[in-house]
Write a structure and sequence with these properties.
Elements lengths: L44 H5 L4 H9 L3 H9 L5 H7 L8 H16 L2 E11 L5 E2 L17 H13 L4 E6 L8 H12 L4 E5 L5 H9 L4 E3 L7 H7 E3 L5 H5 L1 H7 L4 E4 L9 H18 L4 E5 L18 H14 L4 E4 L5 H7 L6 E3 L28 H10 L3 E3 L10
Parallel strand pairs: 1-3, 1-10, 1-11, 3-4, 4-5, 5-7, 7-8, 8-9, 9-10
Antiparallel strand pairs: 2-6
Helix pairs in contact: 3-4, 4-13, 5-13, 6-7
Length: about 425
C-alpha cells in the first residue's frame, strides 16, 4: 500500500545543510551504487531523500493547525500531509481520539493479538565508532563472539522461555561477523525457530538473497537519523559513516525478496524527533511503492543509557511517544509496530492498546545473556522493562489480548 504525498516541498539538489554523500562501498548486489555493465542505476530512497529539506519539513509540521488534525482524523486514507498533522504539536490535544482510532484499526487488521520475539546477540564486536552505542569500537568493553556451541546453548535457553521468533543482533564488523559467519550459524539457529530476523551491518543485495535461502525472514535496518549533519557528528569512524549506503539498504532488501523490512530512527539523536519521524514516513511510502511484495515493520527506540553515555539531544515524553505510535497506526493500518524492552513496564502495558503488534520480553543485550546470565560489561544498552516473559504475557492477557509466540510454520514457505 502506498501513500499519496500531500505536503508541499521545496525541491533542491541536496537537502539544506546536508553534505554530499559518498558512494556505497564495494560488495556487489547493486542498490545505491553504479550498476555494472553501463546499465542505468536503479532508483533508491536516496533519490527522494535528496529532494527533501529538513528545516522546511520541521517548519511545516509546526505550522499544522487543529483544523489540519481534524481533517486528518476524518480522512478515510491518510496522506503524508496528514501524518505531518498527526505528529504535530497541534495534535497533542487530540490524543484520546487518535488512540481510539488507532486501537480500532489495529484490532481490525491484527485481531486481539500481540506477537512476541526476543533478540539474540551473537557478537558485540564492532568496527564503527558511534557516540550513542555501547558496542562502539572506542569503548573499553569486553568483546565476545558466540561460537557454534554457545549459539546452540543460547537457542535452547530462549526456546525454554517459550519464544519461537528471534532477532539476530551483532555489532557491525564485516570481517569477523560478516557473511561467512552468518553462513555458518544461520542453519543452526533456523532449526530452532520458525521466524528468524536480523539486525546487523548493511549487506549487498546478493548477500541478502543468499541469506534468504538459508532461512532469513526479516531484516531491521534503522537509519538512526535522516539529518546528514547529525548523522556525521555521531558516526565518527567505520563503514557506518556512509549515509548513502545505509539509506539504500532497504531497497537492496526489497530487491533481494526479503519478506519483512524494518525501519526506524533513534529518537533523541537529532534535535527534532518529528522531522526524523516524517522522513521515516517518506521512506516507508517510497518502499511500499517500489517494493510492494515485502511487508514492513517500524520501531521507535528512545536513547537508553549505555557505555559512553550520550545524552539525548531532545527528550520525548511518554505522551509524545504515545502520540507518535497512534499517528503511525492511523497513517498505515497494515504496518507492524514494535515496542522493545527499552521502554518501561508501565508504558508498555498501556501501549499494547494503542497500535502495537509486536513486543520483545526478557531481553538480554549481550552475547550469551540467556544461557550464561547477565554480564553488564558486554551489553549494548540497559533495558528498562526487565520483567520475565511470563509476567509480560500476563499483562497482555490482562489487557484483553492474546500473546502469540508462534504465528508461522516454515514448511508453508514464504
Amino acid at each position: 500500500m502506498s501513500h499519496e504525498t500531500g505536503a508541499t516541498m521545496n525541491i533542491s539538489p541536496l537537502p539544506q545543510g546536508q553534505p554530499e554523500v559518498c558512494p556505497p562501498p564495494p560488495g556487489g548486489g547493486g542498490g545505491g551504487g553504479g550498476a555494472p555493465g553501463g546499465r542505468a542505476k536503479e532508483p533508491t530512497f536516496l533519490d527522494r531523500w535528496q529532494e527533501l529539506e529538513w528545516d522546511d519539513i520541521g517548519l511545516q509540521i509546526r505550522a499544522k493547525t487543529a483544523a489540519d488534525v481534524a481533517r486528518a482524523l476524518s480522512a478515510p486514507r491518510r496522506t503524508l500531509a496528514d501524518f505531518m498533522a498527526l505528529i504535530s504539536p497541534a495534535a497533542e490535544a487530540y490524543l484520546p481520539q487518535m488512540a481510539a482510532e488507532a486501537e480500532r484499526l489495529t484490532r481490525q487488521r491484527f485481531g486481539n493479538t500481540i506477537s512476541f520475539y526476543v533478540p539474540l546477540y551473537l557478537s558485540n564486536l564492532c568496527a564503527n565508532d558511534c557516540t550513542y552505542c555501547g558496542f562502539s569500537m572506542s569503548n573499553r568493553l569486553k568483546r565476545k563472539t558466540l561460537t557454534v556451541e554457545e549459539i546452540e546453548r543460547e537457542c535452547l535457553a530462549i526456546k525454554a522461555r517459550g519464544f519461537d521468533s528471534v532477532l539476530l543482533v551483532t555489532g557491525e564488523h564485516e570481517h569477523k561477523v560478516g557473511l561467512a559467519y552468518f553462513r555458518e550459524v544461520m542453519p543452526i539457529i533456523r532449526r530452532h525457530f520458525s521466524t528468524v530476523g536480523m539486525e546487523v551491518q548493511p549487506l549487498s543485495q546478493a548477500e541478502y538473497a543468499e541469506l534468504k535461502t538459508l532461512g532469513l525472514d526479516a531484516v531491521m535496518v534503522y537509519q538512526e537519523t535522516y539529518h546528514a549533519p547529525t548523522y556525521a557528528r555521531h558516526h565518527l569512524r567505520g563503514n557506518k559513516r556512509d549515509i548513502a549506503w545505509r539509506l539504500a539498504t532497504p531497497d537492496r532488501l526489497g530487491r533481494a525478496g526479503i519478506d519483512k523490512i524494518g525501519l526506524g530512527a533513534l529518537i533523541g539523536l537529532s534535535s527534532d524527533w518529528r522531522a526524523d519521524s516524517y522522513f521515516v514516513a517518506e521512506h516507508l511510502s517510497w518502499l511500499e511503492r517500489h517494493h510492494w511484495q515485502s511487508r514492513y515493520s517500524l520501531s521507535f527506540p528512545r536513547l537508553r543509557p549505555c557505555t559512553g553515555g550520550l545524552e539525548p539531544a531532545v527528550v520525548m515524553s511518554d505522551r509524545q511517544l504515545a502520540q507518535l505510535i497512534c499517528a503511525w497506526r492511523l497513517f498505515s493500518p497494515t504496518l507492524d509496530l514494535s515496542l522493545s524492552t527499552r521502554e518501561s513496564a508501565t508504558f508498555r502495558n498501556g501501549a499494547v492498546r494503542l497500535g502495537i503488534t509486536q513486543m520483545s520480553a526478557e531481553s538480554r543485550t549481550q552475547p550469551g545473556g540467556y544461557a550464561e546470565g547477565d554480564a553488564e560489561e558486554l551489553e549494548q544498552f540497559a533495558i528498562h522493562d526487565d520483567r520475565p516473559v511470563g509476567e509480560v504475557a500476563a499483562a497482555v492477557r490482562q489487557a484483553g489480548l492474546q500473546p502469540v509466540f508462534k504465528d508461522w510454520e516454515p514448511f508453508l514457505g514464504r
